[in-house]
Design a protein that fits this description.
This protein has about 210 residues and is an alpha+beta fold. Helices cover about 30% and strands about 30% of the residues. The strands form 2 sheets. The protein has a 7-stranded antiparallel sheet, covered by helices on one side. A 4-stranded antiparallel sheet has the order 8-9-10-11, with no helix packed on it. Helix 2 runs antiparallel to helix 4 and helix 2 packs parallel to helix 5.
């Protein structure tokens, strides 16, 4: 970045290349996107929630609340279940210097622009149909498991609230205390699972109600 902070890293992990985009911070910089040559990639909203998630079968685009905005299947994923929804071109800005353009499975570009200069990284990959045909069916999270996870997170929130009541009897004091970061992360993960799992709308509403009570 113009600040001197590291923006994009490309490393080799075994037989795959990994491209990582970091936010513009001198230390403890959060990861804003990860692209793997194996076909798996994830982009994150500024607050950390998943924005775009892709694999060798297709991908999905989520809003900041974790709700699915769109979903698509790559043209060569002939064995993927459900309707074959084509990809509409996507362009997002991870920050004021780094953007991501998705035009196809092998046409995914990370663009870096600063001080009148531009660099582009092609992070897309092409998977042969024969390889897709060998994929095992995607694992699905059972309804009972999802409800148990939601209840567990809710219980943790209640314990944290109880601990706050014991340490700070005054409501005004308790309201100033921020919830633990791990609880926020676990809550966001449960809400993300509700979006990405193949479950009924009724169950999705029940899980969200448990977590958000």
């Amino acid at each position: 970045y113009p600040s001197g902070n590291l923006a994009i890293i490309v490393v080799r992990e075994k037989n795959h290349l990994v491209c990582i985009v970091q936010e513009d911070k001198p230390s403890k910089a959060e990861i804003q996107a990860v692209f793997m040559s194996s076909g798996r990639s994830t982009c994150y909203h500024p607050h950390g929630a998943v924005w775009i998630n892709m694999n060798i079968q297709g991908g999905q685009y989520l809003d900041q609340a974790g709700s699915r905005v769109r979903r698509w299947i790559w043209p060569n994923s002939v064995t993927s279940p459900g309707p074959h929804v084509p990809l509409s071109p996507i362009f997002i800005s991870l920050n004021q210097h780094v953007g991501v353009r998705i035009l196809g499975q092998d046409k995914i570009t990370v663009s870096f622009l600063a001080m009148g200069q531009q660099a582009k990284f092609n992070v897309g990959t092409k998977v042969q149909v024969s390889e897709v045909g060998q994929l095992p069916p995607p694992a699905r999270l059972g309804e009972d498991e999802l409800l148990l996870l939601a209840c567990r997170v809710r219980i943790l929130w209640l314990f944290d609230r109880l601990r706050g009541c014991l340490n700070f009897p005054s409501n005004e004091q308790r309201d100033k205390i921020k919830p633990p970061a791990y609880l926020i992360r676990q809550t966001l993960k449960i809400l993300q699972l509700c979006t990405t799992s193949d479950i009924s709308n009724e169950l999705r509403s029940r899980v969200r109600a448990i977590v958000n009570t």
